[in-house]
What we know:
Blueprint: E1 3-7, H1 12-23, E2 27-32, E3 46-50, H2 58-61, E4 66-69, H3 81-102, E5 106-110, H4 139-153, E6 159-165, E7 167-169, H5 180-183, E8 190-193, E9 197-202, H6 203-216, E10 221-225, E11 228-231, H7 232-243, E12 248-251, H8 254-269, H9 278-283, E13 287-288, H10 293-299, H11 306-322, H12 330-337
Parallel strand pairs: 1-2, 1-4, 2-3, 4-5, 5-6, 6-10, 7-9, 8-12, 9-13
Antiparallel strand pairs: 9-11
Helix pairs in contact: 1-6, 3-4, 7-11
Amino acid sequence: MKKVFVTGITGLLGTNVVIKLLKDGYFVIALVRQKSRYYGQEDENLQLVEGDLLSDVSQYLKTVDFVIHIAAETSQNLLSYEKYKETNYDVVVHLFSESVEAGIKKFLFVSTANTMGYGDIKGLGNEQSRQKYPFTKSFYAQSKREAENYLLRNNKTTDVVILNPTFMIGAHDRKPSSGKIIYWVWKKKLVFYPSGGKNFVHVEDAAQGIINAIEKGKNGEKYLLAHENCKYKDFFKKVNAITEQNPLLLPLPDFVLIFLGVLGDVLRFFNIKTNLCSSNMKALRINNYYTGQKSIDELGIHYQPMDKAIMDAINFFENKEYAISKVSLKPQVRLQQN
């Protein structure tokens, strides 16, 4: 039985990764801050280890073959780069150094698509695209890029594979994290949508890509886990079709987003935490599009329709909140026909 050490298993992606690892017959040792924060099922092949991300885990690494590092600081309201660097870079250096010392075969690092340059529908961003504004001004994306560069400079004895998921949707989003975008439109009578768009991927497919990379990922390579490029307006229409709702959709003018960005910059200047800033508002006005073709060709991923990801997320939210799914069966029949 192959053993793997995983961080970040209480989040959306981490939970899905652990589910698939156990299903595929791996023994998983997972680092958690508190065992009570893990809501997944108990399993004889899952060992939870309490500790923070800078804990000495060398004794556990000596018993495993692979490390999957998912844990990260993903909030968008921190005011300094150092706050992101502490989690997204310093922890990576610490964990990777211990992994090398323990003789780990392969270190898989989950980063973000925004360390690469996005494209538009005529020229999609890929693994060779250079990072662009507004993500060059994102402290989160900067810290992830710095960690990537460190790993790629030090992959001589331990193989390094970097996975770059786009915007993930699906079940087990307990916070919720990226699933908040569904709440923007779900059960609303009036919805404002920004002019841009982004790439969406089913979190199950992102998780499968990570697991496939254990065997198929090449040392020193980066893989975009990306599927469907979609305007925000069209994404909201998908949510409405699946939930059989019909709110009024109105465009959010760019000048409003520009104003909110400037307002956020001022608030940040006075050390007030906010998600608003010029770079974040710019991200809502661009087509943040990518291709996942490399992951299809080299990792063997078969991506699912985004309708399926949305449905899985909504069913999870409904079950979590009301203990019963209220999403009609009609959209499921439609998906099967597609």
